[in-house]
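Running log. JK asked me to keep both predictions on one page so they can be read side by side. First protein, sequence followed by its tokens:
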Amino acid sequence: SSGFGIFLPIAILHIFDGLVTVLFVLMIGALIFGFNLPFSSWPAFLLILLVASFSAMAFGLIISCLGLLTRDLNLVLNVASMAMLGLTGANFPLERIPVWLQPVGQLMPLTRSIEASRSLYAGMPLSDLSGMLIGELILGIVLMAFGVLIFNVMTRVAVRLGVLEMF
């Protein structure tokens, strides 16, 4: 079977879990901090969440493949999570990171989705955010294709060598 066929059912569960978590946290944010997204913006916000989840899932596939190549998966996960927090605009604007790191931030999944979410909250219509969403979707497709390719190659090597782990 293909790597995509193995990965997709697991990923869909995590996408659903992520969506439920985000919606729950937004409800808490509305109660405690007064977060208020107009009802008319919710369909656009859900679309942004789906695109963000897809690109994050694709990135996760690549990370999981890297985990097969190393005995220290925690190192891979820590580097990936710190890169996601520091280079996507999740914690602070990209303009505040060093100029030489800003292009790396633009190559990270979630960067455009975070920017689109903030712009939607500021009142920008979905039509003005389509470029960001298309860019995020294209990045997700490229990451997914690369991840499936890596997974399939690693699976063939593992079968040929008769091993379950790649290290």
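And the second, directly underneath as requested:
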Amino acid sequence: EGFDIEDEFHNFDALNTPKDHPARNLTDTFYLEKDVLLRTHTSPVQIRVMQEYEPPIKIIAPGRVYRIDNAASHSPAFHQVEALVVDEGINFADLKDMLNIFAKKMFGENIESRIRPHFFPFTEPSAEIDIVCVKCYGKGCNVCKGSGWLELGGAGMVDPNVFEQVGIDSEKYTGYAFGMGMDRVAMLKYKIPDIKLLFENDIRF
């Protein structure tokens, strides 16, 4: 577990996020004062662990995160969980296997999943994992916006620049990380229409 209140180094700089990245704007991030903010993801836990421990590293990091957002599928405070694995010989196939195993364990052995290219500042290469829509099973509906697929989370191989920030030799070690919203996973698994239901404390729900 990590800190809800973070500094810009652990939340952005060490994670290879450029100074002009939109996530650093006041419209996206809750700043308490200059350089102090409510963390926007659980990834600062990765940085703190890699600063403190030598590889091999294998962690799961759950926690609450904060972003300036408020919609049926988004909340200004929500929960993420992420994994980090750092060791010699870790590759993208290891990551792909782990994501596919997770999807089947969470949504059933028959669930289809796919990995597609994406971009995150702290991973290279980066990817997102999707599962086939749990409502229409690929036919297209209002839940998946007609695509037949639902985004589950982001992932990728740890960028060498991140290893450099925490003093890990990127010539010797590789690693992968993935993260997803726990609230979103619950919404997909149990077909919950509005994320606010998870926070309203209505005993009927």
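Observation for JK regarding the second prediction: The two ends are 28 Å apart (CA to CA).
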